[in-house]
Amino acid sequence: MLFSTRRRATVGVLVSLALLATAGCSDADATNQPQPPKTGGTLHVIVSAKPAHLDPQRIATATDANVSRLLSRTLTTFKSEPGAAASEIVGDLATDAGRPSEGNRVWDFRLKEGLRWEDGTPITCEDVKYGVERSFSSAFSVAQPYAKTYLASTENYAGPFVDGNNDGKGLASVQCADKRNIKFRLSQPVGDFGYTVAMSVFAPVPVKQDTKNDYDRKPFSNGPYKLQENTDQRLVFVRNQYWDRKTDSVRKAYPEKIVIEANGDLPTVTSNLIQSEGDFADSIDLDKNVAPSFVQQVVNDPDLSARAVQGSYGGIRYLAINSKRIPDLDCRRALVYAFDKRKFRAAAGGSVFGDYANTMIAPQLKAHKDFDLYDSANNVEGKPDVAVKLMEGRRNSGKPCATTLTLSIPEQKDIRRLAATMVESYQRIGIQLKVNGIDPESYFDVIGNPANQNDLLWAGWIPDWANGSAVIPPLFDGRLIPTKADATNNQNYSLLNDRQINDAIAAALEESMPDRQYRLWGELDEKIQQQAVTIPIIYMKALRMAGTNVRGGFIHPQFGQPDLCALGLA
Protein backbone atom coordinates (compact mmCIF):
# COMPACT_ATOMS: atom_id res chain seq x y z
CA MET A 1 0.00 0.00 0.00
CA LEU A 2 1.54 3.33 -1.01
CA PHE A 3 1.01 6.81 0.28
CA SER A 4 1.79 8.73 -2.73
CA THR A 5 2.32 11.97 -4.33
CA ARG A 6 -0.76 14.15 -4.39
CA ARG A 7 -1.75 16.06 -7.46
CA ARG A 8 -4.11 18.99 -7.73
CA ALA A 9 -7.69 18.55 -8.87
CA THR A 10 -7.61 21.99 -10.62
CA VAL A 11 -9.82 25.02 -10.38
CA GLY A 12 -13.41 24.34 -9.48
CA VAL A 13 -12.96 20.87 -8.07
CA LEU A 14 -12.19 21.94 -4.53
CA VAL A 15 -15.70 23.00 -3.66
CA SER A 16 -17.16 19.66 -4.65
CA LEU A 17 -14.58 17.32 -3.15
CA ALA A 18 -16.50 16.79 0.03
CA LEU A 19 -19.49 15.64 -1.99
CA LEU A 20 -17.52 13.33 -4.25
CA ALA A 21 -15.70 10.95 -1.96
CA THR A 22 -16.95 9.08 1.01
CA ALA A 23 -13.96 6.85 0.29
CA GLY A 24 -16.09 3.85 1.07
CA CYS A 25 -16.18 4.53 4.80
CA SER A 26 -19.57 3.94 6.32
CA ASP A 27 -21.02 4.74 9.69
CA ALA A 28 -20.50 1.10 10.57
CA ASP A 29 -16.73 1.47 10.63
CA ALA A 30 -16.72 4.82 12.43
CA THR A 31 -15.70 3.12 15.66
CA ASN A 32 -14.81 -0.42 16.54
CA GLN A 33 -16.43 -0.25 20.00
CA PRO A 34 -19.38 1.73 21.36
CA GLN A 35 -17.34 3.48 24.06
CA PRO A 36 -15.15 6.42 22.96
CA PRO A 37 -11.42 6.44 23.79
CA LYS A 38 -10.22 7.93 27.04
CA THR A 39 -7.09 9.98 27.62
CA GLY A 40 -4.02 8.11 28.82
CA GLY A 41 -2.27 4.76 28.52
CA THR A 42 0.11 3.31 25.95
CA LEU A 43 -1.20 2.45 22.49
CA HIS A 44 0.77 -0.29 20.70
CA VAL A 45 0.78 -0.09 16.91
CA ILE A 46 2.00 -3.00 14.80
CA VAL A 47 3.39 -2.37 11.30
CA SER A 48 4.79 -4.83 8.79
CA ALA A 49 7.99 -2.80 8.49
CA LYS A 50 9.25 0.21 10.38
CA PRO A 51 8.41 3.50 8.65
CA ALA A 52 11.11 4.29 6.14
CA HIS A 53 11.06 8.05 6.72
CA LEU A 54 10.09 10.53 9.43
CA ASP A 55 11.60 13.61 7.77
CA PRO A 56 8.46 15.30 6.37
CA GLN A 57 10.16 16.26 3.11
CA ARG A 58 11.00 12.58 2.45
CA ILE A 59 7.66 10.92 3.20
CA ALA A 60 6.06 8.90 0.40
CA THR A 61 4.14 5.92 1.82
CA ALA A 62 0.78 5.66 3.57
CA THR A 63 2.27 4.39 6.79
CA ASP A 64 4.92 7.11 6.91
CA ALA A 65 2.29 9.80 6.26
CA ASN A 66 -0.04 8.43 8.93
CA VAL A 67 2.75 8.33 11.52
CA SER A 68 4.04 11.72 10.45
CA ARG A 69 0.90 13.51 11.64
CA LEU A 70 1.91 12.65 15.21
CA LEU A 71 5.04 14.80 14.82
CA SER A 72 4.61 17.19 11.92
CA ARG A 73 1.79 19.61 11.34
CA THR A 74 1.17 21.36 8.02
CA LEU A 75 -0.64 24.54 7.06
CA THR A 76 -3.76 22.48 6.37
CA THR A 77 -4.63 18.85 7.03
CA PHE A 78 -7.41 16.34 6.51
CA LYS A 79 -10.05 15.91 9.17
CA SER A 80 -9.78 12.93 11.48
CA GLU A 81 -13.39 11.83 11.17
CA PRO A 82 -15.06 8.80 9.55
CA GLY A 83 -16.98 9.01 6.31
CA ALA A 84 -17.03 11.87 3.81
CA ALA A 85 -15.62 14.36 6.32
CA ALA A 86 -12.21 12.65 6.16
CA SER A 87 -11.78 13.99 2.60
CA GLU A 88 -12.18 17.58 3.78
CA ILE A 89 -9.29 19.83 4.81
CA VAL A 90 -9.15 22.36 7.61
CA GLY A 91 -6.55 24.84 8.76
CA ASP A 92 -3.90 23.07 10.83
CA LEU A 93 -1.03 25.44 11.54
CA ALA A 94 -2.97 27.98 9.50
CA THR A 95 -6.16 29.66 10.63
CA ASP A 96 -8.03 28.44 7.54
CA ALA A 97 -7.59 26.54 4.28
CA GLY A 98 -5.96 29.49 2.53
CA ARG A 99 -6.98 32.67 0.75
CA PRO A 100 -6.41 32.74 -3.03
CA SER A 101 -6.04 35.85 -5.17
CA GLU A 102 -4.85 36.90 -8.63
CA GLY A 103 -6.82 34.13 -10.29
CA ASN A 104 -5.55 31.41 -7.89
CA ARG A 105 -1.92 32.27 -8.64
CA VAL A 106 -1.28 33.68 -5.15
CA TRP A 107 -2.21 31.99 -1.88
CA ASP A 108 -1.96 33.54 1.59
CA PHE A 109 -2.01 31.73 4.94
CA ARG A 110 -1.88 33.08 8.49
CA LEU A 111 -0.42 30.98 11.30
CA LYS A 112 -2.44 30.47 14.46
CA GLU A 113 -1.29 32.02 17.71
CA GLY A 114 0.38 29.83 20.33
CA LEU A 115 2.07 27.34 17.99
CA ARG A 116 5.32 25.94 19.42
CA TRP A 117 8.08 23.45 18.71
CA GLU A 118 8.99 20.72 21.18
CA ASP A 119 11.51 23.05 22.90
CA GLY A 120 8.89 25.76 23.39
CA THR A 121 10.09 28.12 20.67
CA PRO A 122 7.38 29.64 18.45
CA ILE A 123 6.63 28.26 14.98
CA THR A 124 7.13 31.05 12.48
CA CYS A 125 6.58 31.78 8.82
CA GLU A 126 10.34 31.35 8.30
CA ASP A 127 10.08 27.74 9.53
CA VAL A 128 7.41 27.01 6.94
CA LYS A 129 9.40 28.73 4.21
CA TYR A 130 12.54 26.80 5.14
CA GLY A 131 10.68 23.46 5.10
CA VAL A 132 9.54 24.18 1.54
CA GLU A 133 13.06 25.24 0.56
CA ARG A 134 14.49 21.95 1.82
CA SER A 135 12.40 20.14 -0.80
CA PHE A 136 14.59 21.66 -3.53
CA SER A 137 17.79 20.20 -2.10
CA SER A 138 19.80 17.39 -3.67
CA ALA A 139 21.32 16.53 -0.29
CA PHE A 140 18.65 13.84 0.13
CA SER A 141 15.87 12.36 -1.96
CA VAL A 142 12.64 14.36 -1.67
CA ALA A 143 9.45 12.32 -2.09
CA GLN A 144 7.00 14.83 -3.52
CA PRO A 145 7.64 17.25 -6.40
CA TYR A 146 4.81 19.69 -5.80
CA ALA A 147 6.78 22.67 -4.57
CA LYS A 148 8.94 22.39 -7.68
CA THR A 149 5.89 21.84 -9.86
CA TYR A 150 3.65 24.67 -8.65
CA LEU A 151 5.80 27.45 -7.20
CA ALA A 152 7.05 30.29 -9.38
CA SER A 153 10.69 31.30 -9.89
CA THR A 154 12.17 27.89 -9.10
CA GLU A 155 14.22 27.28 -12.26
CA ASN A 156 17.62 28.14 -10.77
CA TYR A 157 16.90 27.50 -7.11
CA ALA A 158 18.91 24.60 -5.61
CA GLY A 159 17.75 24.63 -2.01
CA PRO A 160 19.06 26.15 1.23
CA PHE A 161 22.35 24.21 1.46
CA VAL A 162 24.13 25.80 -1.52
CA ASP A 163 25.04 29.34 -2.57
CA GLY A 164 24.09 30.71 0.83
CA ASN A 165 20.43 29.89 0.14
CA ASN A 166 20.19 32.22 -2.85
CA ASP A 167 22.45 34.77 -1.11
CA GLY A 168 20.21 34.77 1.93
CA LYS A 169 17.04 35.49 -0.04
CA GLY A 170 15.83 31.90 -0.12
CA LEU A 171 13.03 30.91 -2.48
CA ALA A 172 11.52 34.10 -3.89
CA SER A 173 8.06 32.61 -4.48
CA VAL A 174 7.56 31.94 -0.75
CA GLN A 175 7.37 35.22 1.15
CA CYS A 176 7.02 36.05 4.84
CA ALA A 177 5.30 39.37 5.49
CA ASP A 178 5.94 38.85 9.21
CA LYS A 179 6.22 35.97 11.70
CA ARG A 180 2.69 34.72 11.04
CA ASN A 181 1.81 35.58 7.43
CA ILE A 182 3.07 33.52 4.50
CA LYS A 183 2.46 34.03 0.77
CA PHE A 184 2.96 31.50 -2.03
CA ARG A 185 3.30 32.77 -5.60
CA LEU A 186 2.51 30.03 -8.12
CA SER A 187 3.61 29.50 -11.70
CA GLN A 188 0.06 28.56 -12.74
CA PRO A 189 -3.46 28.83 -11.32
CA VAL A 190 -4.11 26.11 -8.73
CA GLY A 191 -7.65 26.18 -7.40
CA ASP A 192 -7.04 23.72 -4.60
CA PHE A 193 -3.60 24.70 -3.38
CA GLY A 194 -5.05 24.38 0.12
CA TYR A 195 -4.98 20.60 -0.44
CA THR A 196 -1.43 20.74 -1.75
CA VAL A 197 -0.05 22.32 1.43
CA ALA A 198 -1.61 19.51 3.45
CA MET A 199 1.17 17.31 2.11
CA SER A 200 4.11 16.47 4.34
CA VAL A 201 6.56 18.08 1.94
CA PHE A 202 5.16 21.48 2.98
CA ALA A 203 5.73 20.88 6.73
CA PRO A 204 7.90 23.45 8.55
CA VAL A 205 11.42 22.70 9.75
CA PRO A 206 13.43 25.00 12.05
CA VAL A 207 16.76 25.80 10.41
CA LYS A 208 18.72 25.48 13.65
CA GLN A 209 17.45 21.92 14.15
CA ASP A 210 18.05 20.71 10.59
CA THR A 211 20.59 17.88 10.53
CA LYS A 212 19.98 17.16 6.83
CA ASN A 213 20.11 13.36 6.30
CA ASP A 214 20.10 12.69 10.05
CA TYR A 215 16.86 14.65 10.44
CA ASP A 216 15.12 11.52 9.15
CA ARG A 217 15.95 9.70 12.39
CA LYS A 218 15.02 12.49 14.80
CA PRO A 219 12.77 15.19 13.33
CA PHE A 220 11.84 18.12 15.54
CA SER A 221 8.20 17.89 16.60
CA ASN A 222 5.41 20.44 16.51
CA GLY A 223 2.67 17.82 16.92
CA PRO A 224 1.16 16.21 20.02
CA TYR A 225 4.03 13.71 20.33
CA LYS A 226 7.81 13.80 20.11
CA LEU A 227 10.17 10.96 19.31
CA GLN A 228 11.73 9.34 22.36
CA GLU A 229 13.22 6.19 20.82
CA ASN A 230 14.13 5.09 17.29
CA THR A 231 15.64 1.62 16.87
CA ASP A 232 15.70 -0.87 14.00
CA GLN A 233 12.29 -2.32 14.84
CA ARG A 234 10.67 0.20 17.18
CA LEU A 235 9.56 3.83 17.48
CA VAL A 236 8.39 5.32 20.77
CA PHE A 237 6.44 8.58 20.88
CA VAL A 238 5.74 10.51 24.09
CA ARG A 239 3.84 13.69 24.83
CA ASN A 240 5.12 16.96 23.46
CA GLN A 241 4.38 19.28 26.38
CA TYR A 242 4.35 22.34 24.13
CA TRP A 243 1.59 21.08 21.84
CA ASP A 244 -1.59 22.97 22.67
CA ARG A 245 -4.87 21.17 22.03
CA LYS A 246 -6.60 24.54 21.58
CA THR A 247 -4.59 25.11 18.38
CA ASP A 248 -5.34 21.66 16.90
CA SER A 249 -8.88 20.62 15.98
CA VAL A 250 -7.79 17.40 14.26
CA ARG A 251 -5.47 15.34 16.45
CA LYS A 252 -7.26 13.71 19.36
CA ALA A 253 -3.98 12.62 21.05
CA TYR A 254 -5.66 10.25 23.49
CA PRO A 255 -2.70 7.98 24.42
CA GLU A 256 0.06 9.17 26.73
CA LYS A 257 2.54 7.11 24.74
CA ILE A 258 2.47 5.41 21.32
CA VAL A 259 4.79 2.48 20.62
CA ILE A 260 5.17 1.42 16.99
CA GLU A 261 6.79 -1.96 16.41
CA ALA A 262 7.58 -3.87 13.20
CA ASN A 263 6.42 -7.48 12.92
CA GLY A 264 6.06 -9.07 9.49
CA ASP A 265 4.64 -12.39 10.78
CA LEU A 266 1.02 -11.68 9.87
CA PRO A 267 -0.63 -14.95 11.08
CA THR A 268 1.04 -14.61 14.48
CA VAL A 269 0.09 -10.93 14.74
CA THR A 270 -3.55 -11.66 13.86
CA SER A 271 -3.71 -14.56 16.31
CA ASN A 272 -2.26 -12.44 19.12
CA LEU A 273 -4.70 -9.61 18.44
CA ILE A 274 -7.63 -12.02 18.43
CA GLN A 275 -6.55 -13.43 21.78
CA SER A 276 -5.74 -9.91 23.08
CA GLU A 277 -3.59 -10.94 26.00
CA GLY A 278 -1.14 -8.53 27.65
CA ASP A 279 -0.08 -5.62 25.46
CA PHE A 280 -2.04 -7.06 22.52
CA ALA A 281 -5.25 -5.85 24.16
CA ASP A 282 -3.89 -2.33 23.63
CA SER A 283 -2.63 -3.01 20.08
CA ILE A 284 -3.79 -2.55 16.49
CA ASP A 285 -2.40 -3.70 13.15
CA LEU A 286 -1.97 -0.49 11.17
CA ASP A 287 -0.96 -1.57 7.68
CA LYS A 288 -1.83 -5.26 7.22
CA ASN A 289 -5.20 -6.94 6.89
CA VAL A 290 -6.28 -9.92 8.94
CA ALA A 291 -4.30 -13.02 7.91
CA PRO A 292 -6.25 -15.07 5.32
CA SER A 293 -6.44 -18.11 7.61
CA PHE A 294 -8.36 -16.04 10.20
CA VAL A 295 -10.70 -14.09 7.92
CA GLN A 296 -13.75 -16.33 8.27
CA GLN A 297 -13.31 -16.52 12.03
CA VAL A 298 -13.22 -12.73 12.28
CA VAL A 299 -16.10 -11.91 9.94
CA ASN A 300 -18.38 -14.62 11.40
CA ASP A 301 -17.73 -13.86 15.06
CA PRO A 302 -19.77 -10.80 16.15
CA ASP A 303 -17.32 -9.86 18.90
CA LEU A 304 -14.26 -10.09 16.66
CA SER A 305 -16.01 -8.37 13.77
CA ALA A 306 -17.06 -5.53 16.08
CA ARG A 307 -13.46 -4.68 16.92
CA ALA A 308 -12.07 -5.15 13.42
CA VAL A 309 -11.55 -1.81 11.69
CA GLN A 310 -12.82 -2.15 8.14
CA GLY A 311 -13.81 -0.18 5.06
CA SER A 312 -13.00 0.53 1.41
CA TYR A 313 -11.09 3.61 0.40
CA GLY A 314 -10.56 3.88 -3.34
CA GLY A 315 -7.09 2.34 -3.31
CA ILE A 316 -5.90 -0.09 -5.94
CA ARG A 317 -3.46 -3.01 -5.81
CA TYR A 318 -1.71 -3.39 -9.14
CA LEU A 319 1.33 -4.78 -10.87
CA ALA A 320 3.51 -2.32 -12.78
CA ILE A 321 5.15 -3.55 -15.99
CA ASN A 322 8.52 -1.93 -16.66
CA SER A 323 8.06 -0.62 -20.19
CA LYS A 324 11.79 0.02 -20.61
CA ARG A 325 12.67 -3.60 -19.94
CA ILE A 326 9.59 -4.95 -21.77
CA PRO A 327 9.19 -2.46 -24.65
CA ASP A 328 7.04 -4.66 -26.91
CA LEU A 329 3.31 -4.00 -26.56
CA ASP A 330 2.21 -7.56 -27.39
CA CYS A 331 4.61 -8.98 -24.79
CA ARG A 332 3.08 -6.66 -22.16
CA ARG A 333 -0.44 -7.51 -23.31
CA ALA A 334 0.37 -11.21 -22.89
CA LEU A 335 1.31 -10.52 -19.26
CA VAL A 336 -2.03 -8.79 -18.68
CA TYR A 337 -4.07 -11.60 -20.26
CA ALA A 338 -2.22 -14.33 -18.35
CA PHE A 339 -2.78 -12.89 -14.86
CA ASP A 340 -5.08 -14.96 -12.62
CA LYS A 341 -6.91 -12.46 -10.39
CA ARG A 342 -9.15 -15.09 -8.81
CA LYS A 343 -6.19 -17.04 -7.45
CA PHE A 344 -4.55 -13.83 -6.22
CA ARG A 345 -7.64 -12.63 -4.35
CA ALA A 346 -8.29 -16.07 -2.86
CA ALA A 347 -4.74 -16.14 -1.49
CA ALA A 348 -5.27 -12.65 -0.03
CA GLY A 349 -8.35 -13.84 1.87
CA GLY A 350 -11.22 -13.38 -0.58
CA SER A 351 -13.67 -10.68 -1.52
CA VAL A 352 -13.50 -9.03 1.90
CA PHE A 353 -10.15 -7.57 0.79
CA GLY A 354 -11.23 -6.13 -2.54
CA ASP A 355 -13.26 -6.21 -5.74
CA TYR A 356 -11.70 -7.23 -9.03
CA ALA A 357 -10.21 -4.25 -10.86
CA ASN A 358 -9.73 -3.48 -14.55
CA THR A 359 -9.03 0.27 -14.34
CA MET A 360 -6.54 2.37 -12.40
CA ILE A 361 -9.16 4.92 -11.30
CA ALA A 362 -11.42 3.22 -8.78
CA PRO A 363 -15.25 3.33 -8.99
CA GLN A 364 -15.47 5.58 -5.90
CA LEU A 365 -14.07 8.45 -7.99
CA LYS A 366 -16.24 10.42 -10.39
CA ALA A 367 -13.38 10.30 -12.89
CA HIS A 368 -13.80 6.51 -13.11
CA LYS A 369 -14.64 5.26 -16.60
CA ASP A 370 -16.14 1.79 -16.86
CA PHE A 371 -14.15 -0.14 -19.45
CA ASP A 372 -12.56 -3.59 -19.67
CA LEU A 373 -10.07 -3.79 -22.51
CA TYR A 374 -8.85 -7.28 -21.67
CA ASP A 375 -12.23 -8.84 -20.84
CA SER A 376 -11.02 -9.28 -17.30
CA ALA A 377 -14.39 -9.11 -15.55
CA ASN A 378 -15.62 -12.16 -17.44
CA ASN A 379 -12.31 -13.98 -17.16
CA VAL A 380 -10.93 -13.38 -13.66
CA GLU A 381 -8.70 -16.43 -14.06
CA GLY A 382 -7.11 -14.80 -17.09
CA LYS A 383 -7.05 -15.75 -20.75
CA PRO A 384 -3.80 -17.70 -21.08
CA ASP A 385 -4.74 -18.93 -24.56
CA VAL A 386 -4.79 -15.33 -25.82
CA ALA A 387 -1.47 -14.67 -24.07
CA VAL A 388 0.12 -17.69 -25.74
CA LYS A 389 -1.07 -16.54 -29.19
CA LEU A 390 0.44 -13.09 -28.63
CA MET A 391 3.75 -14.64 -27.62
CA GLU A 392 3.70 -16.99 -30.60
CA GLY A 393 3.19 -14.00 -32.86
CA ARG A 394 6.29 -12.33 -31.45
CA ARG A 395 8.34 -15.52 -31.89
CA ASN A 396 7.21 -15.83 -35.50
CA SER A 397 8.27 -12.24 -36.13
CA GLY A 398 11.77 -12.99 -34.90
CA LYS A 399 11.40 -10.79 -31.80
CA PRO A 400 10.30 -13.21 -29.07
CA CYS A 401 9.10 -12.12 -25.66
CA ALA A 402 11.42 -12.83 -22.75
CA THR A 403 10.54 -16.07 -20.97
CA THR A 404 12.37 -15.26 -17.73
CA LEU A 405 11.22 -12.18 -15.82
CA THR A 406 11.93 -10.66 -12.41
CA LEU A 407 9.16 -9.61 -10.02
CA SER A 408 10.03 -7.25 -7.16
CA ILE A 409 8.09 -7.51 -3.89
CA PRO A 410 8.59 -6.43 -0.27
CA GLU A 411 10.09 -9.48 1.44
CA GLN A 412 7.18 -10.52 3.66
CA LYS A 413 5.53 -13.90 4.10
CA ASP A 414 2.03 -12.82 3.09
CA ILE A 415 3.28 -11.05 -0.04
CA ARG A 416 5.43 -14.09 -0.90
CA ARG A 417 2.27 -16.17 -0.82
CA LEU A 418 0.55 -13.76 -3.21
CA ALA A 419 3.61 -13.70 -5.46
CA ALA A 420 3.38 -17.50 -5.70
CA THR A 421 0.03 -17.12 -7.47
CA MET A 422 1.69 -14.86 -10.03
CA VAL A 423 4.46 -17.42 -10.57
CA GLU A 424 1.76 -20.03 -11.31
CA SER A 425 -0.11 -17.65 -13.64
CA TYR A 426 2.91 -17.10 -15.83
CA GLN A 427 4.05 -20.71 -15.79
CA ARG A 428 0.90 -21.43 -17.81
CA ILE A 429 2.28 -19.42 -20.73
CA GLY A 430 5.88 -20.59 -20.44
CA ILE A 431 7.30 -17.65 -18.46
CA GLN A 432 9.52 -18.26 -15.44
CA LEU A 433 9.05 -15.57 -12.82
CA LYS A 434 11.94 -14.94 -10.45
CA VAL A 435 10.78 -13.26 -7.26
CA ASN A 436 13.13 -10.57 -5.96
CA GLY A 437 12.34 -9.96 -2.29
CA ILE A 438 13.46 -6.53 -1.08
CA ASP A 439 13.75 -5.28 2.51
CA PRO A 440 10.27 -3.82 3.19
CA GLU A 441 11.72 -0.77 4.92
CA SER A 442 13.60 0.28 1.79
CA TYR A 443 11.33 -1.31 -0.85
CA PHE A 444 9.81 1.87 -2.28
CA ASP A 445 13.17 3.64 -2.28
CA VAL A 446 14.64 0.74 -4.28
CA ILE A 447 11.88 0.53 -6.88
CA GLY A 448 11.73 4.33 -6.87
CA ASN A 449 15.06 4.32 -8.69
CA PRO A 450 14.20 4.29 -12.42
CA ALA A 451 17.37 2.24 -13.04
CA ASN A 452 16.07 -0.74 -11.02
CA GLN A 453 16.38 -4.02 -12.91
CA ASN A 454 12.91 -5.46 -12.24
CA ASP A 455 10.44 -6.36 -14.99
CA LEU A 456 7.32 -6.46 -12.82
CA LEU A 457 6.82 -4.43 -9.64
CA TRP A 458 4.38 -4.96 -6.77
CA ALA A 459 2.61 -1.65 -6.14
CA GLY A 460 -0.50 -0.01 -4.75
CA TRP A 461 -1.99 3.45 -4.85
CA ILE A 462 -4.34 5.51 -2.71
CA PRO A 463 -5.71 8.71 -4.28
CA ASP A 464 -5.39 11.57 -1.86
CA TRP A 465 -8.66 13.09 -2.96
CA ALA A 466 -11.49 12.04 -5.19
CA ASN A 467 -10.25 12.82 -8.66
CA GLY A 468 -8.18 11.28 -11.43
CA SER A 469 -5.62 14.05 -10.89
CA ALA A 470 -4.58 12.11 -7.79
CA VAL A 471 -3.99 8.96 -9.84
CA ILE A 472 -2.98 9.54 -13.46
CA PRO A 473 -0.28 12.27 -13.27
CA PRO A 474 1.87 10.82 -10.46
CA LEU A 475 1.73 7.29 -11.89
CA PHE A 476 2.02 7.95 -15.62
CA ASP A 477 3.35 11.44 -16.40
CA GLY A 478 6.73 10.73 -17.98
CA ARG A 479 7.90 14.27 -17.28
CA LEU A 480 8.01 13.43 -13.56
CA ILE A 481 10.46 10.53 -13.95
CA PRO A 482 13.66 11.72 -12.21
CA THR A 483 16.88 11.74 -14.20
CA LYS A 484 19.26 11.67 -11.26
CA ALA A 485 21.19 8.36 -11.20
CA ASP A 486 20.58 7.67 -7.51
CA ALA A 487 16.98 8.92 -7.37
CA THR A 488 14.61 7.00 -5.09
CA ASN A 489 11.47 9.09 -5.51
CA ASN A 490 10.04 7.89 -8.83
CA GLN A 491 6.45 6.63 -8.64
CA ASN A 492 5.90 6.07 -12.35
CA TYR A 493 7.05 2.47 -11.88
CA SER A 494 6.07 1.52 -15.43
CA LEU A 495 8.45 4.24 -16.72
CA LEU A 496 5.80 5.26 -19.22
CA ASN A 497 6.93 8.39 -21.02
CA ASP A 498 4.57 8.85 -23.93
CA ARG A 499 4.37 12.36 -25.41
CA GLN A 500 0.68 12.07 -26.27
CA ILE A 501 -0.14 10.85 -22.76
CA ASN A 502 1.96 13.62 -21.20
CA ASP A 503 0.22 16.26 -23.32
CA ALA A 504 -3.21 14.86 -22.46
CA ILE A 505 -2.32 14.99 -18.75
CA ALA A 506 -1.34 18.64 -19.09
CA ALA A 507 -4.62 19.38 -20.88
CA ALA A 508 -6.66 17.65 -18.18
CA LEU A 509 -4.89 19.57 -15.43
CA GLU A 510 -5.72 22.83 -17.18
CA GLU A 511 -9.43 21.98 -17.53
CA SER A 512 -11.43 24.08 -15.07
CA MET A 513 -14.83 22.41 -15.52
CA PRO A 514 -15.06 19.40 -13.15
CA ASP A 515 -17.32 17.23 -15.32
CA ARG A 516 -15.08 17.73 -18.33
CA GLN A 517 -12.01 16.98 -16.27
CA TYR A 518 -13.50 13.76 -14.90
CA ARG A 519 -14.17 12.65 -18.47
CA LEU A 520 -10.61 13.46 -19.52
CA TRP A 521 -9.11 11.42 -16.66
CA GLY A 522 -11.33 8.45 -17.49
CA GLU A 523 -10.33 8.61 -21.14
CA LEU A 524 -6.67 8.82 -20.14
CA ASP A 525 -7.06 5.79 -17.91
CA GLU A 526 -8.34 3.83 -20.91
CA LYS A 527 -5.57 5.07 -23.22
CA ILE A 528 -2.95 4.07 -20.67
CA GLN A 529 -4.47 0.62 -20.27
CA GLN A 530 -4.17 0.24 -24.04
CA GLN A 531 -0.43 0.56 -23.48
CA ALA A 532 -0.55 -2.43 -21.05
CA VAL A 533 1.89 -0.90 -18.57
CA THR A 534 -0.03 -1.97 -15.46
CA ILE A 535 -2.20 -4.86 -14.37
CA PRO A 536 -5.00 -3.58 -12.09
CA ILE A 537 -5.79 -6.44 -9.69
CA ILE A 538 -8.21 -5.37 -6.96
CA TYR A 539 -9.87 -2.23 -5.65
CA MET A 540 -8.72 -2.54 -2.08
CA LYS A 541 -10.64 -2.90 1.14
CA ALA A 542 -9.23 -2.95 4.65
CA LEU A 543 -9.88 -5.36 7.53
CA ARG A 544 -7.49 -4.51 10.37
CA MET A 545 -7.58 -6.31 13.69
CA ALA A 546 -7.55 -4.40 16.97
CA GLY A 547 -7.21 -5.53 20.57
CA THR A 548 -10.11 -5.49 23.01
CA ASN A 549 -9.02 -2.22 24.62
CA VAL A 550 -8.53 -0.16 21.44
CA ARG A 551 -11.14 2.44 20.53
CA GLY A 552 -11.82 5.06 17.87
CA GLY A 553 -10.72 3.12 14.80
CA PHE A 554 -11.90 3.93 11.29
CA ILE A 555 -10.25 3.62 7.88
CA HIS A 556 -9.07 7.04 6.76
CA PRO A 557 -9.24 7.40 2.94
CA GLN A 558 -6.00 9.35 2.78
CA PHE A 559 -4.02 6.42 4.19
CA GLY A 560 -6.18 3.33 3.69
CA GLN A 561 -5.43 2.63 7.35
CA PRO A 562 -6.84 3.32 10.81
CA ASP A 563 -6.14 6.99 11.51
CA LEU A 564 -3.54 7.25 14.28
CA CYS A 565 -4.87 10.68 15.20
CA ALA A 566 -8.20 9.17 16.32
CA LEU A 567 -7.07 6.02 18.17
CA GLY A 568 -7.06 5.57 21.92
CA LEU A 569 -7.79 3.09 24.70
CA ALA A 570 -10.85 2.34 26.78
Describe the overall structure.
- By secondary structure, this protein is α+β, with helices and mostly antiparallel strands.
- Helices cover 25% and strands 18% of the residues.
- The protein has 17 helices and 21 strands.
- It has helices at residues 17-20, 62-68, 125-134, 146-150, 163-167, 193-196, 266-275, 295-300, 302-307, 329-338, 341-348, 384-396, 413-427, 443-447, 472-476, 499-510, 514-530; strands at residues 42-47, 76-78, 89-91, 99-101, 106-110, 174-176, 181-185, 225-230, 234-239, 257-262, 283-285, 309-321, 354-356, 404-410, 432-438, 456-461, 534-544, 550-551, 555-556, 561-562, 568-569.
- The strands form six sheets. A six-stranded mixed sheet has the order 13-17-12-16-14-15. A five-stranded mixed sheet has the order 8-9-10-1-11, covered by helices on one side.
- Helix 10 (329-338) packs antiparallel against helix 12, helix 11 (341-348) runs antiparallel to helix 13 and helix 16 (499-510) runs antiparallel to helix 17.
- The radius of gyration is 23 Å and the shape is globular.
- The two termini are 29 Å apart.
- Residues 1-28 form the signal peptide.
- Keywords: Signal.
- Residues 88-477 form the Solute-binding protein family domain.
- It comes from Dactylosporangium roseum.
Count of spatially separate domains: 2
Major sheet description:
6 strands, mixed
Poorly predicted sequence stretches spanning 5 or more consecutive residues: 1-33
Name the beta content range.
15-25%
The name of the CATH topology of the largest domain is D-Maltodextrin-Binding Protein, domain 2
Q: Counting H and I runs of at least 4 residues, what is the number of helices? A: 17
Structural class category: alpha+beta
